Amino acid sequence: MNGQGGQPGNRPGRDDSPDRLYTLTGGRSRSAPDNPFDLVTLVVAECDPVPGMQSEHAAILRLAERPTAVVEVAAVLRLPVGITKVLLADLLAAGRVSARHPRRTAVTDPDILEQVLVGLRNL
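Given the sequence above, the corresponding structure tokens read:
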């Protein structure tokens, strides 16, 4: 057991071999500063996987047939979010995915805000 109460080896990305992660990203541990991806960015595949493509890239394209959040892609692939962002940046640069942020709607109705506050207090 680890200190988190889970089984050892069940932590996505943290128990992966550093060599494997290094290989996946070509040695890059962070994507470029202008990378448009954050945890809630929605990724959409612009094409199907092609033969010979890196397996993680192909998996991302299959996952992103419908808009999928970056954090969900990372969780399904069991990779750290930073590594996932590097892979997504590669696909974006190649025109294989597009990225968009979910629409934000401001909640200004006081009744809804009150219900949210009550719900949070009940947690």
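Helices lie at 18-25, 55-63, 70-77, 81-93, 110-122. Try to locate this feature in the token string yourself.
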